[in-house]
Design a protein that fits this description.
The protein is an all-beta fold. 0% of the residues lie in helices and 42% in strands. The chain has a single domain, classed as Rieske [2Fe-2S] iron-sulphur domain (Rieske Iron-sulfur Protein, 3-layer Sandwich), CATH 2.102.10.10. It is globular, with a radius of gyration of 13 Å. InterPro entries: Rieske_2Fe-2S (IPR017941), Rieske_2Fe-2S_sf (IPR036922).
Length: 109
């Protein structure tokens, strides 16, 4: 698989998650306060809730339903009730295009 355009960089608003779908995979794209673009699985591992409806603070995305926060860098949950990570996807920026390959996930550290 190869990276696909999911949105324009100019479509992203700082700290406002944007839900996109690539090959049926829901992904939350976030432009954080430092200007970095992140892409993580959009489904909370605790309650099957869309993370793109949640809240961004620093480099975390918090599920609005039960409060689990996930690292935008690693996908790891930072608090309960979630204990399983979400996938983190490699993001490429080409001009104003945000590209994501749903088969290219970042290794967890």
């Amino acid at each position: 698989m190869s990276a696909r355009r999911v949105c324009a960089l100019s479509d992203l608003q700082q700290d406002q998650p944007l839900k996109v779908e690539v090959d049926g995979i829901p992904i939350a794209v976030v432009l954080d306060s430092s200007g970095e673009v992140h892409a993580i699985g959009d489904t909370c591992t605790h309650g099957d809730i869309s993370l793109s409806e949640g809240f961004v603070e620093g480099d975390t995305l918090e599920c609005w339903a039960h409060g689990s926060a996930f690292s935008l860098r690693t996908g790891k949950p930072l608090n309960l009730p979630a204990y399983e990570p979400v996938p983190v996807y490699v993001v490429q920026i080409d001009g104003d295009d945000v590209l994501i390959d749903p088969a290219a996930t970042k290794a967890m550290s």
